[in-house]
């Protein structure tokens, strides 16, 4: 009688090895990503926001396609000051927010005379501003006293800017935040100190 040879044993995987990616690890990764998204949303809604400059109205201070970091906290604690650069949603129903410089605040009187901006009778002293300053709309008449809770915004590139000269003083509540940093492109990195 011939015995059939026994089949070779089937190799078993070692029992001391664990799977390379367990469900627990996947769950931890998902939780970390969810937390990162929540923190990002909260920061973007209440603290800071990244904005792309889409107009040429702030040249040479800010160029088209520059990226800036906008603080949303500053104006919860105080009011804008002349010379600060702000991002705001204008009342003219523009589809994108505007980036402009605060030229006058509530109570100030602005005039445009001989191609220059005068605030409270004195020439505006914004060093970066250039170009002839001219009226843009017959609805905005001068001298103009800025009403309470409003500001007057102008672009530094006065001849290529649609600003308060065309749509008038803007309410403070339209301000999204104050520009504090230009971070892109990297070679033009600049902190704005106010």
General description of the model:
Strands 1, 2, 3, 4, 9, 10, 11 and 12 form an 8-stranded antiparallel β-sheet that branches. Strands 7-6-5-8 form a 4-stranded antiparallel β-sheet, with no helix packed on it. The longest helix is centred in the first third of the chain and has 24 residues, at 23-46. A hairpin with a 2-residue loop joins strand 5 and strand 6. With 194 residues, the protein is α+β, with helices and mostly antiparallel strands. It has helices at residues 23-46, 74-77, 164-167; strands at 48-52, 67-71, 85-88, 98-105, 109-113, 116-119, 122-123, 144-145, 150-154, 170-171, 175-184, 190-191. Helix content is 16%, strand content 28%. It starts with 22 loop residues before the first helix and ends with a strand. 25% of the residues are buried. The protein has 3 helices and 12 strands. It is elongated. The protein has a single domain, classed as Umud Fragment, subunit A (Ribbon). The model has no long low-confidence stretch (mean pLDDT 85).
